[in-house]
Amino acid sequence: MSQYATERAIWEATSGPDKIQAYLANPDAFLAQYAMTDEEKALVKAKDVKALADKHGQSHMLLMLFWLVTSGGFAALQEYLGRMNAPA
Amino acid sequence: MAQIVGGFLMPHDPLFTSAPDTPPKEQRDAVMNAFAHVNKRLKELQVDTVIVIGDDHFTVFGPHCLPRCLIVIGDASGPIEPWVGLPNEQFRINQPLAQHIMNYGFDNGVDWAVSKSITLDHSISLPIHLCFQKEENISAIPVMVNAGVEPLISNKRCFEIGKSMRDAVLAWEGNERVAIFGTGGISHWVGMPDMGRVNEEWDHMVMKAVEEGDTETLVNLSDAEIIEQSGNGGLEIKNWMVALGFIEGYRGTMIEYQPVREWVTGCGFMEIAA
B24, B27, B144, B207: most buried, per Cβ within 10 A? Predict the structure, then answer.
């Protein structure tokens, strides 16, 4: 299932400084390693956490971790919650 | 023979140490005093081994491997997350008793995943650091159940695992004085739209059930109801249920409860005893 491939891609992008840097340096190359749909890749690159949670079944906890490590840490938490609470 | 001398339920919120000054002073003092109280009780009870029940937060384990229940029989350190604000230290592990609990489980229906060497996340590491890392005569046995990432462990299975560990300890020939920690919860919404909300009514319902030894109420809570009423973080009462299964005929006594919005968690501390 590509849902699980997407979950693995998001998880691996958060799993340690080297992986985080690899993702941030070239998201397309990083995501190309996983059997994801083009829509899933686009949502991850756009950090559309609401759609990934609501429409693609991704874990809120994992999405928050992904957001924080790719957006500058806890200072970015309110922006994350703003996106998660945005109207669909 | 080894003895079971007590149990404690407590939160493991990483914001306690990563953002220690954000709540009002009265609340943060109450929480830290509760951890100090547990330390005092461990010493009063002359505990030498604490089985610490926690759950991984998509940190050590990921989609490639999600253990339903895991016991550490070798080396452990933590926390693995630098941002938690605690030093990543080696923990003292009671390896002989951990290996006995593992083997007892294998022979009695618990197919443990096993770690021989691991760096743990905050869920187990933080309670160890705040309650007994400085007490050189107290060792840990870390146990993880999957209360955080789907597919989730069932409430019933958590009680059964606790009971299996109880039977294992009581069958152990050593002279250990063993306590158990059930960590996590109560209400908190991790990364969910409601993050920051605390459901005090729910939290008190859970603690009342523990006070009354009401296993039926707790085991019959559905995962969907727990998430609706207390968030995905509220599922960590499954960690509590392992501890409750370990203390046969348990009753709970409140140590402290603080609904700390700055720490996004209903923070409940209880002592459990037969």
Answer: B144
